[in-house]
Amino acid sequence: MAKEASMKQFEEDRKEATRIAARLLLASGTTSPRVGGVGETTIHIIDDECQIEELCQAVERMAEENKRWGFFKRDAVMLRDADAVLIVTSLRCLSDPGDFNCNLCGKLTCEYKRQADMLPNEPGIAFPGPLCIFRANNVGYAIDSMVALARNLGIDYGVYWSAGAAAMRMRIVPKSTGFALAVAISATEKSPFRDIPKKYAEINEATMNDRIIKRLWPQFRSIYS
Amino acid sequence: MAIRESDEMLQSGLDRAVDLMAVAAHNSFRFGGVDTVKLICAGKEEIVNIAEFCYSMGDMSPLAARDGRFAMELVKEPCALLIMGDKRKSDFNYDCGACGYRTCREMNKAECVEALTGNGPSCQFKNMNVNIAADAAAAMAWRLGLHCRVYSTLGMAAFALKVIDDVDFAVSVCVSVARRDPFFDRHQFWTDEYWDEIFRKEFPTYTRGFIGAVEDEG
Question: What is the third-level CATH fold of B6-181?
């Protein structure tokens, strides 16, 4: 039976609400504190279903690269249910340390950090460091400001470093990005980012639909018709 | 009904606000799902010590000197300094590479480099957690109408002076109920002449006619 027009309208409005919320979250993240009072962070909104799917597939591919990243598959399933994903980047943590000589990276001066050997940009390494941790901390401020507003707006959210790393791999963020995290948002009656059962990568709404409804029903229909 | 003076109410409100900021910081998002961030609130005596330390760092860090000088002014009115920090080693096992080591295990085994500002190398996600907590505290202060600014410099000084112990790095959130916002546009510290002198020194090409030309100062 076709969906009622009013149900279709609800679905459209629901998605529009998250598109508006995503832009408000971008504003909140952009105006959050910055270390040293110096801006170097960008926020990118992905609210197209096809682009979100591409991001999820990149996250799933990365799950195979490192044995510690098995949870990326679970992340991809949750991200697939997001209405929008916001990627927060740090543009100067890779090659332009803050000259604070803060030692957070383990190099006593920023000059030593500039001279340090960087990890290669290869599979199994998400963020080739050492990064300027002081600069990259800006991403933390932005993430929390976005989360704080999402809570106020009543929008469900999840924070994922897997999607940030995948966005860098896909080169959909500025090329100077050294560190990126993602905030996924959703406006549905049940948050797709909470109450996640075990084996969620294998057993979730999509796979259950696929295995039970889409597999069994066509056979049932074929046999009993 | 007894009359309460505004000074008393402001101090009491500030104390309650700081408690709520601590709750917001404590309950904010955490990578790893568990809060390991240590959080304390420094009183005026500690803030003065921190300010003097920062000011003494002037030769090494103009930013620390600026914040130290400012904090000395700040304590003249009701204020508080939330300081939060964490250990540097990773317990996430993300193996993300941001610290410059291929695995968390390698980073955790690496020699600890101690400094006044903080100990390294530190896990990027541990840093994220602390800064998320700081932002949550700041966001709560903002909502409650407090003057507020996040300070890395004062956090580092608190670490150096061991005002906050058992952590490897720290950041701070300063709040105030002063009569005017003390945290931004602090022009009272600058004379026009000194500002012009510093600007000419830092941006010498701004006033030059063409590249390589030197203005006749006479």
Answer: NADH Oxidase (3.40.109)
